[in-house]
Amino acid sequence: MIKEKTSTALTFEDFKIEVLNDYKIAIISRECSLLGRKEVLTGKAKFGIFGDGKEVPQLAMAKAFKNGDFRSGYYRDQTFMMAIGELTIQQFFAGLYGHTDIKQDPMSAGRQMGGHFATHSLNEDGSWKDLTKQKNSSADISPTAGQMPRLLGLAQASKIYRQVSGIPNASNFSIEGNEIAWGTIGNASTSEGLFFETINAAGVLQVPMVMSVWDDEYGISVHARHQTTKENISEILKGYQREHDTNGFEILRVKGWDYADLIATYEKAADIARENHIPVLIHVNELTQPQGHSSSGSHERYKNADRLAWERDFDCIRQMKLWMIAINIASPEDIDAIDVQAKKDVLEGKKAAWNAFIEPIVEEQKELVALLQRIAESSNNKETILKFIADLSGIKSPLKKEILVTARKVLRLILNENGKQELSQWITSYTTKTQKNFSSNLFSETDLNVFSVEKVLPVYPEDAKEDTDGRMILRDNFDAIFTKYPEALIFGEDAGTIGDVNQGLEGMQEKYGELRVADVGIREATILGQGIGMALRGLRPIAEIQYLDYLLYAIQIMSDDLATLRYRTVGKQKAPLIIRTRGHRLEGIWHSGSPMGMIINAIRGIHVLVPRNMTQAAGFYNSLLECDEPALVIECLNGYRLKEKMPLNYGEFKTPIGVIETLKEGTDITLVSYGSTLRLVQQAAKELLEVGIDCEIIDLQSLLPFDINQDVVKSIAKTNRLLVIDEDVPGGASAYILQQIIEQQDAYNYLDSKPQTLTAKAHRPAYGTDGDYFSKPSTEDIFEKVYAMMNEVNPSKYPNLY
Question: Which residues are catalytic?
Answer without folding.
Answer: 591
